[in-house]
Amino acid sequence: MPETRSQPASELYPTRLHSAKASVAELLKLEERISNLRLATFIFGGVVAWLIWGWGLISTWSIALPIAIFVALIVRHGRTISQRERQQRIVAFYEHGMARIEARWTDFGTTGDRFVDPGHPYTSDLDVFGHGSLFQLLCTARTAIGQTTLADWLQGPAPPHEVRARQAAVDEIMYDVDRREALALVGDEVAPDIDPTHLVKWATGPDRSTPHVLRWVCVGLVLTSALSFVAVRLGLVPIAVFLAAAALQTAFGRSQQSIVKSVQRSLGLPSAELAALARLLEQIEDSSFRSPKLVALQKSLATDGQPASSRIAKLQRLIELLDARRNQMFAAIAPLLLWGTQFSLAIEAWRQNNGPNVPQWLDAVGEYESLCALAAFTYEQTETNFPTLGDGHAHFDAKGLRHPLMAMDQCVANDVLLNTDNALLVISGSNMSGKSTLLRTIGTNAVLAQMGAPACAKTLTLSGLQIGTSMRTQDSLLDGTSRFYAEIKRLKQIVDLVDNDLPLLFLLDEVLHGTNSHDRRIGAEAIVTALVEQQAIGLITTHDLTLTQVADNLGPLARNVHFADHLVDGEMHFDYTMHDGPVQRSNALGLMRAIGLKV
Question: Is residue 478 very low, low, confident or very high in pLDDT (cuts 50, 70, 90)?
């Protein structure tokens, strides 16, 4: 059991951060001392050389001592730099953790901009990707496959059984900070260049039909040429034997040029990052897990009794050896040894043996990193709880619900109940009172709940839900669409979600605000009535008090709620608490007067 189980992150992180910073300071001092010793040794070596060759006063062997010391200092200096860089990465790991705890996390981490999709049913409205997003808060994954997996989890609900499996896995590793620290250190090395799409495409590409025997033919021809050359030099055979062997080797090498070029062109994998990926896989393989999800991930990395880490490490070594032919000192010899041919064939043999398993290995890495990200969120955000996810009719029942992207001291919690008997909340209220924030609070917590993360609530019980939102529709000069047209297109997209297997949770902010009050009321009532009749649940917000009639017309299936405000000494005050009934007053004129407009 990890030692952190009884220690909150707010206490553990500062302690470890202080220790890592102290280590960095000590290693920097050591680096400086070693640098000074290297300089002194270099000067001492110069004096020794002067005494040897300038004056002949001491033995030539005397130069060996300063050279040996200088080489040893170079090695020690390199190790010290590596240790210092490692400690600096640990410092960054805990600094980022403290930033998340203290709600300063928007200055760190990856924003997930590459996953932004304006056409997605909810990610843009709910701040799932981008600066200050849910992805930026959650994502501690450093590899591309880990980030992609986490993004996929954020973009659609998992089945209830999968959610429960992820919850159990997260619960198992949430206190294991050492695991996440080690993962972050490996991730720093592997993140920049590993492209999972390219790696999978290469690994699962078409069979090039290269018999394994060709590798032995290649080795045999090289040995034959080398031995015949030696035999010629010793006078054992005529030079014609060597020329025949060399011609046969050259002909074989040329016959394999197409496969060699194909392998070298399609591979393009950086060996250093593959080595780090192997260490990441090894971390999963060497762990002891209890939860079925993590046990299954671990088992997926074993193929024919050999772990995936050792197989990836073998590929990394083969690529390093293949790349050795580019070394300036070795480049002239490599063709004589058929170096490129030998290792291209070896890499292709690796692909034929292991390629079909690569997608499974990368999926395991992606899921493992994503689970570790959720574990960090669970450990650091103490005011969260795992929701209860069930089957059946649509429902969302939350107590003390708050927004995960807001600091605790800035967020007012609310209770929300939606089910097929209480399917619609019509929220009225003044500007800045909290209507839109409540919609996003519900939506983001539904996303968290259905990806396996804890929700920011005292309790949350919900069914599996499709989420559809309309909050930030904009006109487009490029596409020639008005704001109203963009909104009704989004509403059509939401209505179409009703046909999916899961019930719908709809969140509509200022619904149909781009048209007149008469058309807005008729259109909004028709849309939400149709949604409710198809067992959907949701909320709409409005400034237009005529829309509060929608709740009245739907009878017991809907109710009006509002957010209140108070104007005191020319300043607006809000309690951000949801109250029953429609709002009775507007603050628009008060706000205009408060900033000096004469209305």
Answer: very low
